[in-house]
Amino acid sequence: MTQAHLEDNTKHDPVKIAKPYNDEHIENRVISILRSGRLVQGKLVEEFEQSLCKYLGSKHAICVNSGTAALHASMLALKMENQGKSEVITTPLSFAATANAIIHAGCKPVFSDVDPEAFNIDPSGIEEKISERTLAIEPVDVYGLPADLERIGGLARSHGIQVVEDAAESIGAVFHGKRIGSISTLSCFSTYATKNLHTAEGGFITTNDDNLAATIRMVRNQGQSSRYNQKILGYNFRMIEICAAIGLGQLPFLDELNERRRQNAIYLREGLSKIESIGFQKVDDPSAHSWYLFSLTFDGKRARMSRDSFVSKLKESGIEADVAWPTPIHLQRYFQETFGFKRGQFPVAEGICEKVFQLPIQPFLTHEELDRIVRSVKQILV
Predict the structure, then answer these.
(1) 2 pLDDT exceeds 50?
(2) Which of 74, 169, 265, 328 could form a disulfide with 292 if both were Cys (CB 3.0 to 4.6 A apart)?
(3) 150-185 burial code (b ≥16 CB/10 A, e <16)
């Protein structure tokens, strides 16, 4: 269908793919912190950590200043306990930070291909990648759908290695009745501005391991076990009080906001299910997914246009669609030049990146906006 036939959305505001939560209580608390002069990693960060432990069912939560810092600190702590091990098995279908953190910790990423329907790392391909140098397996809960932590955890235990879960997108998700953050050796979350639970910028690590928690707390604070008592080489990964205040203000509403995301995803899936050129990430249990992103696949041959052209047309019609991720990690220039990765090594991940895209499902969408999404997609494709 030509652009002339598309719905005229010029009089509408764009349908945003993300809308960070805010309210008057958070704003007042932030102003109060600024006026107090006590800005960095104080009582509110500690309160946020305790609240996260209670919500997720974990023994420890350690707040840091980004999801990447969460992964980096976790890898460093594990490496300190496992001298001589320096490989981490992970997925090529993720944001580059997943692998960057491995490298920053002095380790090597070892990629394993993904499941073609769920988009998460395929457990059946992991074991052949395990060697005497393997430090950990790093699954990613892609778009908010938990990886197969039962099979991955079983593999890790049988080989005496650990699981560092990249849970950046899965706050509030559930696996076999347990919240993500209470299952793996280490679970690393992002609280970046677009995430289901945001602190503007930030992240945190959960674990039930006392020793790892203590090491990570030193890593985030220049290696200090107490003020001016440096025991290890560390970083400044501290979270500021303002970020903790923003997160604390949302945590009581997180399940409600996630449920809105689920309902929006279900509504869009039903509305688009009969379009032959559209497919969906396989989700067996919608209540287990955090629905950070609603990810679909696009069949360019059936649609007679490219995925990128389709996404551009959606944006022109006022729907803020996105493509996460257009290029798998192993085909990013740095990884090809540094490690020699080539196209064709992980064909499933490569194929998904060529056809995946996302539509808005953030919790503040109205029914009118959801209907606009469905109408716009159909006007372009049907």
Answers:
(1) no
(2) 169
(3) eebbebbeeeebbbbbbbbbbbbbbbeeebbbbbbb
Identity (one letter) of the amino acid at 247? G
Predicted confidence at residue 12, as pLDDT, reads 83
201 touches 192 (CB < 8 A)? yes
Tens of pLDDT, residues 5-60: 445 554 689 999 999 999 999 999 999 999 999 999 999 999 999 999 999 999 99
What sign for the dihedral angle of Cα 370, 118, 199, 57?
Answer: positive
Sole residue written with tokens 């559930």: 174
d(Cα 351, Cα 356) in Å, to the nearest integer? 9
pLDDT score at 85: 97
Residue range 3-19+254-381 in CATH 3.90.1150.10 = yes
Do 85 and 105 meet the contact criterion of CB atoms below 8 Å apart? no
Mean pLDDT taken over the chain: 96
User: Identical fold at 3-19+254-381 and 24-252?
Assistant: no
If DSSP codes are grouped into helix, strand and coil, which group holds residue 240? strand
* Peptide bond before residue 291 is cis, with ω within 30 degrees of 0: no
Please give the CATH topology (third level) of the domain spanning 24-252: Aspartate Aminotransferase; domain 2 (3.40.640)
What residue ranges do the domains of the chain occupy? 3-19+254-381, 24-252
Q: How far, rounded to the nearest angstrom, does the alpha carbon of residue 327 sit from its chain's CA centroid?
A: 16
For residue 77, is it left (φ>0), alpha (ψ between -120 and 50) or beta?
alpha
Q: In the predicted model, what is the mean pLDDT of residues 333-348?
A: 98
DSSP 154-202: HHHHHHT-EEEEE-TT-TT-EETTEETTSSSSEEEEE--TTSSS--SS-
